[in-house]
Amino acid sequence: MRTIVALLVAAxxxxxxxxxxxxDGDTYMVSRSWKLTYSHxxxxxxxxxxxxxxxxxxxxxxxxxxxxxxxxxxxxxWWEKADGTGVQVRPEFTGETEILEITxxxxxx
Length: 109
Prior knowledge:
It is a single chain. It contains one helix and eight strands, in the order H-E-E-E-E-E-E-E-E. It is mainly β. The strands form two sheets. Strands 1, 2, 3, 5 and 8 form a five-stranded antiparallel β-sheet that branches. Strands 4-7-6 form a three-stranded antiparallel β-sheet, with no helix packed on it. The longest helix is centred in the first third of the chain and has 14 residues.
């Protein structure tokens, strides 16, 4: 059992990191991903998040200009953060284990 948990944690840390990607000098991209899975029949988000809402944000006080998701069917509802620095998403669970990836475009402040 411990081995399985250790393997899941290791795999999750590889999949779920924040990864900025190069764009032009004034903008950049940030991608985050989460595993939507089930434990004893109950929906789970890995890594754990508060209030079942995932969030992707720009660095510092940079402003989000656009965002996309790898599968729109995995989005139950979404809203931009009030300060304009990112997006929050309440995932839609499909009954299968899925990966939700959000990529945002940020403009340097």
